[in-house]
Write a structure and sequence with these properties.
Arc Repressor Mutant, subunit A; 4-stranded antiparallel β-sheet; DNA-binding; 39% helix; homodimer; globular
Chain lengths: 261, 261
DNA sequence: CGTTAGGTTGAGCAATATCAAATTCGGTGG
DNA sequence: CCACCGAATTTGATATTGCTCAACCTAACG
């Protein structure tokens, strides 16, 4: 079915989920089955999911970038989050999931349907690794959404873009799609603007500053983060921590005394 | 136990969840049991939950306001979302839930522990209404988080605050805590600023403009939205829609033709 | 009454938006 | 290979929004 010449050459999903939680060989093969499946293709700018609409079977992105988007009446647009290869579209732990935001293809895309994933989630016993990985993927998603709120609410342009770049790089590298800080970057600056809540012009100027400072290189659809340390610091980016921190916070009795009103 | 003189006088939780999905009498009594339980009290400014920490039993807020909060190194602070009476603290559909943001008491609070809720979620058969209501509550939470992103990313100060006020009023009114647009408002302007991503001074000025225009009244810990229609328009606030829209979007074959690469 | 936390005001400044005009870039047809 | 086209990027000028700092005011409370 042409998705890979040798079996397991790409393994986008296995790569990603196995990193979140160790998968059994059988669980891996479920993912390979999904990824090997016939692809749906979508043009750039097509709507993959409509807000307030019942979600059908979840899909995974194999190729291309998409975004959860919300529009305001006068044409302003805010990107809630970017969806990258390996990410799910329309996957929710909720039972009767409505999509709460529209999903828009930002580039031409290929996706695969993954109906079995919905079931896998609840079957902890049969596919414990997969179930745990899906849990952690959901946690990651929430984590990045919190990051988006903090960026938009409390970081000025430069920090905001630096942080956002670092998030993208982190997520792509987890899927083997980033080479020491360099990766394909198919978005126009106007789209970046809608993601980070700035005007396209200001995005442009901020990018140039980053270039002048030798921190990034951005041309011909490719972004290189030349000085990730500096960008991480500037944007105060912290990768998600999804396992419990063991340094127990010492004081957990003082604040909440149980009483009965 | 003092929580209600006649049984069912307050019924904060029943009120809220029954509005999300119809509950059986038995399900209601589970909620009443929870709400009638001994209260934990917390001082203002105490930390109810620490980021990156294992979540214990979920709690419900009976009294007081809290916030999910994230701090930056230099002291800047962003409020991710406000938690009101009837909201859950540390409730997640995920299996091994880490808290992803800290939860801070903004006022003195009373909460009740609700360990049975975690189980109820998965037992669709035993407590279908409750399970559905929890699902919808989670959807609502995500909906408001999307709203937060849009506000911060694409709305100027006045719209931002108008929209935020409308959200608060909506949520409180669902719980019977708002009287035709008027409700207790225990936050200082600095906290408002951290919620809407502005400086306290600018919040102050925007509030005054709203007062001058006769759209709000805010004094002595009480906020009245005097012209909700105007505020709703200014902030482009839309209440959550959690049931599928029936106007099927007509075109769902054009965009995605299935091919096989 | 004095103290204090929070609210209010003013002045100046910094960050970001807007608008309009270049300029560059990636194709595409000759 | 060249000329050209439209889209995207870049630049400049100017307007607006929101921030900072510092002072001042007010209401609640002991």
């Amino acid at each position: 079915m042409a998705s890979a010449r040798h079996p397991g050459v790409t393994d986008l999903l296995v790569n990603r989920f196995n990193r979140l939680a160790p998968l059994s060989e059988q669980e891996c093969s479920v993912l390979r089955l999904i990824e090997g499946r016939a692809k749906h293709t979508h043009q750039a700018d097509s709507l993959l999911l409509t807000a307030r609409t019942e979600i059908r079977a979840p899909h995974f992105i194999v190729t291309g970038w998409a975004a959860r988007v919300q529009k305001l009446k006068d044409g302003r647009r805010q990107i809630i989050g970017i969806l990258l290869p390996g990410d799910a579209i329309g996957l929710s732990l909720r039972k009767s999931p409505l999509s709460l935001a529209s999903v828009l293809a930002l580039t031409p895309m290929r996706t695969v349907s993954a109906p079995e994933i919905t079931a896998a989630w609840s079957e902890r016993d049969r596919v414990p690794g997969l179930s745990a990985a899906l849990d952690l993927a959901a946690a990651e998603e929430e984590f990045f959404m919190i990051g988006q709120v903090v960026r938009l609410g409390r970081q000025p342009a430069y920090e905001r873009i630096a942080n956002w770049f670092m998030e993208l790089e982190y997520r792509l590298s987890c899927r083997g799609l980033s080479n020491s800080g360099a990766f394909p970057f198919p978005l126009k600056q106007e789209t970046v603007a809608d993601a980070v809540g700035l005007s396209n012009v200001h995005v442009n100027r901020t990018l140039q500053q980053m270039r002048r400072e030798g921190r990034i290189e951005l041309a011909r659809g490719r972004l290189s983060l030349l000085d990730r340390e500096a960008l991480r610091n500037a944007g105060e980016f912290n990768p998600p921590v999804l396992s419990a921190s063991h340094s127990a916070p010492a004081d957990h009795r003082a604040a909440d005394a149980a009483t009965s009103d």
